[in-house]
Each structure stands twice: as structure tokens, then as C-alpha cells.
Amino acid sequence: MLEIDVGEFLGFGNNYFVVGFPSILIFFFLSANLASFGVQEQRLNWLVRRVSSIMIPYWFVIVPVVIINRFVLYKETTVLMDLATVLGLNLFLESPLYAIGWFITLINLLYLAVFLQSLSKSAFVKFVVWALGGICMVYLWDMFSYFLAFTLGYLSSRIIPRPKKNRSAMTIRDRILFVVQDKCYAFFLLHGAVLNFLFVKLDATGFDLIGWSIVLTSVGAILLRQITIPLIKGACGLLRKQNTG
């Protein structure tokens, strides 16, 4: 049976620059490209919608992980570290509990940058916001490539026509893009935990690890989306009512 290192399969080993790195770049590009529409017209609503779409599914995953870690002691943490983990501040932790938690911090910071630059009509101010963001990505976290992919995705949203959400008017391109955006985040969020469980707890390797991880993660991602979509819509709806009230 083929033996496979779980770290490499997650994209952290020798295969990272072959599989993991390009796929994450594409993910950031699409996140910026599809999520940036509407920020100029509904700034605060836009920010709440984007952060809610990231944090609510994340909480459904990370809260059980934090609680279970207290019993199985997978990684030693403090209460403050657990609180930072739940708040999505993983990039500020030296040894985060959840392997892909860095993405949560990074994508929220990038969405915040989009929001901040939208507050001004000055091209200079917009440039300063993006420049500061790029400097932080380089000197604090060495993640300029992700920042660049996000920036290119955002700029392309200014040029490429906005995809139509109306099903009757959707092109094949629109359908593909929205399916990728809608399903990939939940899959990405769960896959690390599923892989770790199968590899560490059940000693799964090779094609068993690959096959079952994809099946279980896909089922979990569908369920996670079904549970969290109404909550995300509810959070955005509550903000709209407060603004109109």
C-alpha cells in the first residue's frame, strides 16, 4: 500500500510548491475577485457579510476543536491562546492549534483592507492602504505572494464584468466561479481536521487516507454550508434592520 506523509498531503511538505501553494494562490485570487463586488455601495454591510461568511463556519469547527483539545491534549495551550484561536487571531500565535488557522486571520485582514480603502475616493489613500498591507505581509508574516494574489483578484474585479447571481442569467463561467467560492472554503476548513483524525487516530495511509478524507470532508462541507448559510444571512439581515431602523 502506498505510504503518504500527512504533512505533504496537507501541502506542508515537499509537494507544497507543486500542489498546495498554487491552489491557495487561486483561492485568494477568487476570494478577492468574487467578494469585492458591492464594497463601494454597501461598505459596512459588505464587511459584516464577508467576515460572517468566514467566522461563522470557522466557529462551528474551531470551538469543538478547542474543547476536545482540552481533553486529549493534542497541543498544549493556555486560556488566552484558546481565546485568540476562537477569535481567529492565529497569525499572532507562535504555535496555533489549528494548522490552517492562519488563513482566517489573513483573509479577514485583507477584507478589512478592502473596506478601509473603500472609505476614501483618493487614489493616493487607496494606494497607501494597499502598500501598508503589502509591507505587513512581507515583514510580519512573509506572505506577500498571497497578498499579491488577493490584490490581483481585487483589481480584476474592477475590470471583469460582475458575475450574475440570477440563475436564469448565469453563464457557465458564473456558475463555476460561484460553486468554487461557495464550496471550497468549507472543504478547506474541514480537510485538515479530517486528515489528522484519519492519519493519527485511525492510522489510515495511502489511498485509504486520500479517498476517505475527500469523502468525509465533502459530506462535512455540505452539512457545514447548510447549517451556517441561514446564520450568515441572519447576521447580515440584523445589521440591515439596525441601519434602516
Overview of the structural elements:
With 245 residues, the protein is an all-alpha fold. The protein has one domain. The protein is 74% helix and 0% strand. It has 9 helices and no strands. The N terminus is likely disordered.
Can you summarize this structure?
With 245 residues, the protein is an all-alpha fold. It has helices spanning 6-9, 16-35, 43-72, 79-86, 101-118, 123-139, 144-159, 172-201, 206-244.
Rg, alpha carbons = 19 Å
* Bulk shape: globular
Largest sheet at a glance? none
* Distance linking N and C termini: 63 Å
Number of helices: 9
Strand content: under 5%
Percent range of helical residues? over 70%
Mean pLDDT: 77
Helical/strand content category: mainly alpha
The number of E-state strands comes to 0
Uncertain runs are 1-19
Keywords:
globular, mainly alpha
What's the topology here?
Elements: H1 6-9, H2 16-35, H3 43-72, H4 79-86, H5 101-118, H6 123-139, H7 144-159, H8 172-201, H9 206-244
